[in-house]
Amino acid sequence: MRTLVAIFLLVCLSLWVPARHYVPVYGTALRAPQPAGEITAPFRLRQLVHNSNSAMKVSADGEACIGLRFATYQRQTEGQFAVTWQQVPFTKRWLVDARSLADNQYRYFCPTEPFKPTQDFSIIVEGKDSAAGSAATVWLTTDGSLGHAVVNGKALELGLNILMAREIRMTPVKLIRVDRGAFLIGWLCTLLTGLAALSWLRQTERPELATDEETRAVQVNKADRTI
Amino acid sequence: MEERMLPSAYSPESADQMAPLSGPASRWRWMSIVLIMGGLFFVKATVFAWMVTPLWDTPDETGHYSYIESLADGHYPVLGKAMMGADVTRSWLGEGAKQRLNWIAQHPPLYYLLDTPVLLTARAIGLDFDQQVRSTRILSALFGAGALIGLAIFVTRVTKSRELGLAAAIFVGATPMFLHLSSGVTHDTLLACLGAWSAERYSQWVARRDAKYAYACAALLALGCITKITALALAVPLMALISLETLRLDMCWRRRFLRIAALGLVAFLPITIWMIYNFLSFGNPLANSSMLGPRPTLVSIGSWDFMSLQPFWQHTFFNYVGLIGWAHDGTLRWLQISGAPLRFFMGTILLTCLLVPLDSVLQKWNSSRRLFFLLAAALALAIYISHTQLKLTVATWTCMGIAVAMIWSGAEHIRRAWRGDVQSLMLFSASACAIFFSYLYFSHLWHGYAGKLQASHGRYMYPVLPFFVLVLAWPWRSPRLARAGLIGAVLSMVVCDSYYLHQVFKFYGQIH
After folding, report:
1. pTM here?
2. Which residue of A lies nearest to B389 if distances are taken between CA atoms?
3. Any idea of the CA torsion for B89, B95, B99, B100, to the nearest 10 degrees?
């Protein structure tokens, strides 16, 4: 029983372990969305992101990240592809495991220190070893406010569905402040409900105490047998 | 009215088959834990209503609140004429926005009548508009807690397992959608509450055959029908079952028919009045908001094609677990549950569906090592399916599992139910009501299909939710399994909190 309570407490406390969150700042709207095509070799998508929006600032509080919305065509995707960020003179490249993608969800790329989010940068998506039929794709939108994409050398009137976000670490102190303590109160309710429920298991673990009448009946029986 | 009247195949011993709450002294301890659980849910939902859920981010909240406002202002909202409140429109769509028709005026008035005094009190003590809306949400939290308490008692009474009753209530309360609805202005939690307590009264009637329980059940169903007309899809089969059983009671035919007529009157008179009002006002007893807009061009499609080409049941399931948000700033904005929390709920429900056909084996092997291996195999299968397959595939398996569980349970218990076994009668009733309700829900949306999947909302199942829960909880009733179920339910609350932390707060823009 104690072990159960300890495990439950640990699981509850795990919610307070600092975790990364991506807070959206601005991006392109997903208007008339179109998939860019399967990201298999030699697929290459390049977009110069015209970034004059000053809403995104790098601060001590959070790092600027670029979110791209991928799709899996509702099937299990396989293989790898590459995403490259360029902002003269810096370049950073990530290899993405297609199996780890969720359908229609953003995947964030954080270039860290050299990134100046208020200036233009380029994003390149290249196919590597995903096979046709099991490759992922990336969503394009008619919202060209952050530039237009060039896919396999062909300029399109569509741009990537980009979401610029701040990456923040949710520390316990920040968590307590979420919605003026609402998360904390909700968490306490969970904790107390769980402990109350587990206390019932403890009760049923032990045999129930006999009432006075039952005890007397047992004594009478014993007396009968003695006689 | 109070005499015990037994059907011919009904033995006096069977009356005690479902009476665990009248057991030893520990019942008060159990009851206090259930009340604590309900109380803490109420606190959590109220806090979320005031501090988390943004205004107008639960389904149709603008309409529900405008209905209450109309009543508080002394006007009865008439469908087609009633408008959204001016302050609601301003808050929802911005300054200068045009008021829209209030389509929620299609609903019967019970919930809104109950919430009107709350709004009047909020106004009387000088709360501002935002606080007035949030005050009226408290009633949803209260009904949510009431539903969970009713569900715990109902499941305990039928399964004779207090752990299982508690587990069922905690698991339902941990569903993100249930918490979300309990923190908004909506009649859905009242419907869930009335559904749970009518099921509980029905179980009492089945066990004791005391007419007062049948009348209480009929009255609660009547209240459900004048909360939302979908409750009729529960009231009809449940009253039919009560009538059939009444025909088998050991009393003269005249009294049997009089009893059935009286019960029918209690259950259906209020909704009949409402339907007559609709007929006289709109020429249609089932008038609804669809008459406000242009009639859509219906698409002719076979029922099987509709189910297989459109992820109808799958989305109903996803939306039952979690469909957060609505139209905070005038445009629809939803966050459908996904990722690990969805897979947890799907995996758990899939596991319990796997156990339904294995019930007799599970009960026989209660204390043997074979039970452990069987459970481990079922658990491994559920985890494998729910974590390796695409979510739509898992949802397909889960929905099929639920359907098989309902049909299996109904078929398994029908014979013993006919012979007068009270638990079997409860299980059969639960399956029959769940299947009947689901068919009507499906049929309604299928016949109204206009080329686009719409209104596949799991919350529509709330009236009949206790019956789904009973059938799925039934295999867990042996002491060991019930304890395991309770531990799983307790963990599901942490999953719900995690979902709010990692997805919902971010969706609301509340993490900075």
Report:
1. 0.87
2. A76
3. -60
